[in-house]
Design brief:
- Helix content is 36%, strand content 23%.
- It is α+β, with helices and mostly antiparallel strands.
- Strands 3-2-1-6-5-4 form a six-stranded antiparallel β-sheet. Strands 17-18-27-26-23-24 form a six-stranded antiparallel β-sheet, covered by helices on one side. Strands 8-7-11-10-9 form a five-stranded antiparallel β-sheet, with helices on both faces.
- Strand 21 and strand 22 form a beta hairpin.
- Helix 3 crosses helix 8.
- The radius of gyration is 47 Å and the shape is elongated.
Length: 852
């Protein structure tokens, strides 16, 4: 149901209510009765002096004007224009949000898509001869009123049912809809006349008496914390007149409801509760005080009185009462107290006298009044007035700051500067406070922005006057900006598409290599100054910027007049007016030549690294294939009567650490068995190929029938002269199956380990230098007599080597593991590999024989 008389939003171009009122609410635009200010279009420059900019600060003149532009004047004009554009963009964003909300309502109501809703909104606005934004406000207001009608209908249906249950005098013939009809009529009449008294009468008779309530009071909240009885029912005229106005900071039931968002529910006032209207009439009655607010703003309080103690109410009734409070809020939204009621002095006399004084000052000034919590303690100060000279460190307009709490508008005031504590001290003692160069910090999008100011604080009656004079840092900031542009090699521009006026800064002329007296290059001729191959990228940039009207960027090669080519990146954004016409394009160029060539060098380096990595991977793969071809991890054991032979090879887990470890176990023509293991120093393809040479050479030399010492002596010559000077360690043994003897020699290698019964010991050490160290070397031999069930182990250092332990400690662990001999030789070797404590990730070769 449309509520007649509900305030409509202002037409486009009208001033937002309360924007210049000292007590106005600065916290955003509400849906009901408010429309965002239309964006201000930047006026053309006239050459007139800019206020606060000094003698040289003038606005830029029109082309052909007589007034020249000074650097300070240009910067001041730019700052002023950008500030206006920011405010216009904010207002435009708010307007777009309202239009989108209205489109969503039409989608839900008309059951159509977003595009159809947008067309419908535009057509209806055109038919109504209003702007789309103004019509969107009307749609939103109508939807809110329809929602209130639905809430009222649901509430009245429930209260009619409660009346049937709670009141014995209601007959079964009373239709449930009669109460709804009467309240709807009362509500419509009250809203049409903005009569809160009529609303109070209707609520009591049609909605609250069925719930057992005896009286109701509707309080209007003032900006200074006062309460005015806007309407009441159930109280005597004398009682209502006595409570017509409640000054600020007086604790009553209604005030507790104003401060508690969930409302105040008092079972019984008894004799100790806070004072309230009609307490002597209902001394033991229950009270409910609910805040009446819309859009996040509380306009007053709905207070309901029961004649006796208030019984617990179900959640459904609680929601119904809250809906009634919301209904009252729509009436209080436009309520103004009649003259002569005693509620006019909403501004404290001290503050009112101080406002004229603040407006006469030439420095920014705030008039503050104390803000007390429910316990009467000073919690904050409300900004009662902002003078015309006010300059906010965060760049906010006066309407946003006025009426807010000091810590709400300037949350950083309680920080390092101790501004809030200084105001508290002045208010408490009356002693004035002066400070020079105090740091003022404001939060803008969670980013702290600081300004230096001289502060003056003084108390005047019950109000505080705060004056600050922000240090003029225009020249210093301009210098910082120029240095930042110089270091970043950035040049800014602005092109007016209506007047064809183009503004460049000095850095942009230098970037183009053009004298500063030359004519700037317009965007449409940008391709003529770029490399021909970049025409596609520039065309895409211009289409996005000028036709699609979206911010865009592009990188291209700028060809300067002297023939030098620079790599440049351009970033720009369009500026639209209220009718979505493109007015101005602004942006910046940045010389990214150094970055470009750095990226080229990095790309080349990455390619080289990738190629080297691929070569290393291929090299390691070939090395591993070669090693596995010569020594497969699983090799078929030898078949020797009375002897078990087993070998194990565990390659390195990391392919880059493929080494030169090797082993061999072969039956010679003489009937003896050649057993050997070795380790070539190093890793990679060189170590693997050297291992192949030494292993094959030892096999060939063993056919001569020479002993192990002589074989190692010959192998030393091979390692020193025929393999490029590699070094290696090895242990070589010849086992005679008939005599069960092992004749062996070593070249810098660990001796074999003999496992007999429950003992494991290395064979006695013999002398022998590592292979390849000297041209010729002699090697001692030794012979070990083996018995039945004896096990002999030969291994490379990959089985025992650790970084944090000595070889002796690692060998001791190996011997303790080798003593526990499983049933088969294969199980014995597998156990040694499993319980190996090596941590060097090296190859491991293991050869074992067990006498039968």
């Amino acid at each position: 149901m449309s509520a007649p008389g509900h305030p409509r939003g202002p037409r486009p171009g009208s001033e937002t209510p309360g924007s210049e009122t000292p007590g106005g609410d600065p916290r955003g635009t509400e849906v009901h009765g408010t429309e965002p200010n239309a964006p201000a279009t930047a006026a053309p420059a006239t050459g007139r002096p800019l206020p606060g900019g000094g003698a040289d600060a003038v606005l830029p003149a029109r082309p052909g004007g007589a007034a020249p532009l000074s650097p300070v004047g240009r910067l001041a004009a730019t700052v002023d224009r950008l500030s206006r554009e920011v405010r216009a963009a904010q207002a435009e964003a708010e307007g777009r949000a309202l239009i989108e909300l209205a489109k969503g309502i039409l989608v839900e109501r008309l059951r159509c898509g977003p595009a159809q809703a947008a067309r419908q909104l535009a057509e209806l606005a055109e038919q109504s001869q209003v702007t789309p934004l103004a019509f969107a406000v009307e749609v939103i207001n109508q939807a809110a009123r329809d929602r209130m009608s639905e809430v009222t209908e649901a509430f009245l249906a429930a209260t009619s049912a409660d009346a049937h249950r709670d009141r014995a005098d209601v007959t079964a013939e009373t239709p449930a809809g009669s109460a709804a009809v009467r309240l709807r009529a009362a509500e419509s009449g009250a809203l049409a006349a903005d009569d809160t008294q009529a609303v109070a009468d209707a609520l009591l008779e049609q909605a609250l008496r069925p719930l057992g309530a005896a009286a109701v009071a509707i309080w209007a909240a003032g900006s200074d914390g006062s309460l005015t009885l806007a309407g009441s029912a159930g109280f005597s005229p004398a009682e209502a007149a006595r409570w017509r106005y409640v000054p600020p900071d007086v604790t009553t039931v209604a005030r507790t409801g104003l401060t508690e968002r969930s409302g105040q529910w008092i079972g019984s006032l008894a004799r100790t509760g806070p004072p309230s209207v009609g307490r002597h009439q209902y001394p033991d009655g229950g009270r409910v005080a609910l805040p009446a607010g819309t859009g996040g703003r509380i306009h007053g309080v709905l207070e309901i009185v029961w004649p006796g103690p208030l019984p617990p109410r179900p959640p459904q009734v609680v929601r119904q009462l809250e809906a009634l409070a919301e209904l009252c809020a729509h009436t209080l939204e436009s309520y103004s107290p009649p003259p002569g009621t005693g509620s006019e002095p909403r501004v404290m006399p001290d503050a009112a006298e101080l406002m004229d004084l603040a407006d006469g000052l030439h420095d920014p000034a705030l008039v503050l009044v104390p803000y007390l919590d429910v316990s009467g303690q000073l919690a904050d100060f409300r900004i009662q007035h902002v003078n015309k000279r006010f300059l906010d460190p965060a760049g906010r307009p006066r309407a946003v700051v006025g009426g807010a709490l000091l810590l709400e508008a300037f949350p950083m005031a309680a920080g390092e500067s101790e501004l809030f504590r200084s105001v508290e001290r002045v208010y408490a003692t009356g002693e004035a406070f002066r400070a020079r160069r105090m740091n003022l910090t404001a939060l803008v999008d969670q980013v702290p922005l600081s300004a230096v100011a001289d502060i003056s604080i003084s108390r005047h009656g019950n109000a505080v006057l705060l004056i600050w004079r922000i240090e003029d840092e225009t020249a210093r900031l301009a210098s910082l900006l120029q240095h930042a542009q110089r270091l970043g090699r950035i040049g800014g521009f602005e092109e007016n598409l209506l007047t064809a006026e183009i503004t460049w800064n000095g850095q942009l002329f230098d970037l183009y290599g053009r004298p500063r007296s030359s004519v700037p290059v317009p965007l449409e001729r940008l391709a003529a100054h770029a490399h021909p191959d970049d025409a596609v990228a520039i065309g895409r940039f211009l289409r996005t910027l000028l036709h699609h009207r979206r911010p865009a960027s592009a990188a291209f090669r700028l060809q300067r007049p002297e023939g030098v080519t620079r790599h440049v990146r351009v970033v720009a954004e369009p500026v639209l007016d209220t009718d979505d016409r493109l007015l101005v394009v602004r942006g910046a160029y940045q010389d990214i030549s150094a970055q470009h060539w750095t990226e080229v060098a990095l790309a080349a380096t990455r390619d080289q690294l990738a190629q080297s990595e691929q070569q290393a991977i291929e090299r390691n793969r070939l090395t591993l294939q070669l090693q596995h071809a010569i020594m497969p991890p699983a090799q078929t054991p030898l078949t020797v009567p009375g002897l078990q032979v087993a070998v194990r090879y565990r390659p390195a887990e990391t392919e880059q650490l493929v080494g030169g470890d090797w082993y061999d176990a072969v039956m010679l023509p003489s009937g003896r068995v050649l057993l050997c293991v070795g380790d070539v120093a190093g890793h990679g393809i060189e170590a693997a190929t050297s291992m192949v040479v030494l292993r094959n050479a030892l096999r060939g030399l063993a056919v001569t029938g020479a002993g192990p010492g002589q074989l190692l002596s010959w192998l030393n010559i091979v390692a020193h002269h025929l393999t490029g000077g590699v070094t290696a360690t090895a242990v070589c043994g010849l086992y005679d199956p008939d005599r069960r003897t092992l004749r062996w020699a070593r070249a810098g290698h660990l001796p074999p380990v003999l496992v007999r019964d429950a003992a494991a010991e290395p064979l006695p050490l013999v002398r022998g230098m590592l292979l390849g160290a000297v041209p010729e070397a002699a090697y001692e031999e030794d012979e070990a007599q083996l018995a039945a069930e004896d096990t002999l182990l030969m291994y490379t250092d990959g089985l025992i080597e650790r970084r944090d332990r000595s070889v002796e400690e690692s060998l001791t662990h190996l011997l303790s593991t080798a003593r526990q001999r499983p049933n088969t030789l294969d199980q014995h070797l597998d156990r040694l590999l499993t319980y190996s404590r090596s941590d060097t990730d090296d190859d491991t070769c293991l050869v074992g024989i067990r006498v039968g």
